[in-house]
Amino acid sequence: MGRYDCVVLHNSVALTEALDSQEPIFPSSIIRDEVGAVEESLREGGFNPYVMAVDYFSRDVVNTLARIGPRFVFNLCEEINQRCDLEMCVAGLLDLMGIPYTGSGPLALGLALNKFRVKQLLRSVKIPTARGYLHLPGHKPRSRRVRFPVIVKPVSEDGSLGIRSTSVCHDPSRLEEQVAYIHDTYRQGALVEEYLDGREFNVSIMGDGQVRVLAVSEIDFSGMPQDIPRIVCYRAKWDEESPMYRGTVPICPADLPARYEERIRDIALRSFHALGCRDYGRVDMRSDALGNLYVLEVNPNPDIGPEAGFVRAARAAGYSYAEMVLRISEMALARGAKVAAVAYAL
Predict the structure, then answer these.
(1) What is the CATH code of the structural domain delimited by 200-322?
(2) Which residues contact 181 (CB under 8 A, 6 or more apart)?
(3) What pLDDT does residue 20 have?
(4) Could you report the average pLDDT of every consecutive run of 10 residues in the chain (346 residues)?
(5) How many angstroms separate the CA atoms of 333 and 265, rounded?
(6) What pLDDT shows up at residue 344?
(7) pTM for the complete prediction?
(8) Spatial CA neighbour of 138 closest among 80, 182, 79
(9) C-alpha dihedral (74, 75, 81, 83), degrees to nearest 10
(10) In terms of Cα–Cα distance, which of 78, 69, 76 is closest to 48?
């Protein structure tokens, strides 16, 4: 197998669609260009990585990792056993094997996948989120005390899956239809939130312990057709031929008043720490019409492909792609060294 000193661990992208889904698979949603880019960056930094695709938990996965005995794993797994809710189990396996790895641990990965739990956690530490409730399949909504318009999304999906232009609802009838779509298609709860008709920001963060905001990015909706809600829906993220894609242009760094940017940075850092994230992550937030800020989502495992928003922010902060990858790797190595030092002392 050769003398490999690290592993780039990733999952192959599932090509199956949910039955009756109106979010088809687009080519841009299945390209994993970050795998090759991370491998190349590690080689430039003097490492000899072994690239390993993992689709299912198996004895072979454990045996291969044990045989290599890597100094660290660069963890790019976003799902396992074709289930994104098992993403946290990959990190858990590496913890059990005593292998240092990049990115957040199992608890942060598991928490972040449930948007409603994230809302509850953030609110408990006085971080603002939009008013809303979780409507579970087969249950009556626990509360109707939200004002229209509202936005409806799957509670546990990634990549804007399940979010479309019709997700913004202006009346109870449309809300009922959209909730039913989430229940029937994605077989999970529907998160119903008051729609914030303001600006949208993505805040990229890097570090472990001592963390820093790389940059604040804003989505420019000025090119969005008037009859389409100003949201980053599934097609806006993946369908490069759609008006939604062309109408959601990232501006990085965002042009913001100093005090307002400081407020955005503070909320993002507090959110990152509240979920126990480490190494790198992204916090998404929106403002209402008055400029009040609310966190939408905390993503502890954002896309780090060469053209991704996180990488754009890293470049704005002065990092090349390779420097970013090596900095993230150094954090995993440092954690491994601390564990080894404690074990040796015992």
Answers:
(1) 3.30.470.20
(2) 22
(3) 67
(4) 88 67 68 92 98 93 96 95 90 97 97 96 98 92 78 93 94 95 95 96 96 98 94 92 95 98 98 98 97 97 95 98 98 86 45
(5) 27
(6) 46
(7) 0.93
(8) 182
(9) -160
(10) 69
Angle 86-136-188 from CA coordinates, rounded to 5° = 35
CA angle 29, 280, 294 (to 5 degrees): 80
CATH number corresponding to 131-194: 3.30.1490
* pLDDT for position 139: 85
Locate the domains of the chain by residue range: 6-103, 131-194, 200-322
Distance (Å) of CA 261 to CA 7, 201, 215, 250, 265: 37, 10, 10, 16, 6
The reported pLDDT for the residue numbered 293 is 98
As a residue count, the chain comes to 346
| pLDDT at residue 19, as a whole number | 60
Secondary structure (H, E, C), the chain: CCCCCEEEEECCCCCCCCCCCCCCCCHHHCCCHHHHHHHHHHHHCCCCEEEEECCCCCHHHHHHHHHHCCCEEEEECCCECCEHHHHHHHHHHHHHHCCCECCCCHHHHHHHHCHHHHHHHHHHCCCCECCEEEECCCCCCCCCCCCCCEEEEECCCCCCCCCCHHHEECCHHHHHHHHHHHHHHHCCCEEEEECCCCCEEEEEEEEECEEEEEEEEEEECCCCCCCCCCCCCHHHHHCCCCHHHHCCEEECCCCCCHHHHHHHHHHHHHHHHHCCCCEEEEEEEEECCCCCEEEEEEECCCCCCCCCHHHHHHHHCCCCHHHHHHHHHHHHHHHHHHHHHHHHHC
Q: Count CB neighbours of 187 within 10 A.
A: 11
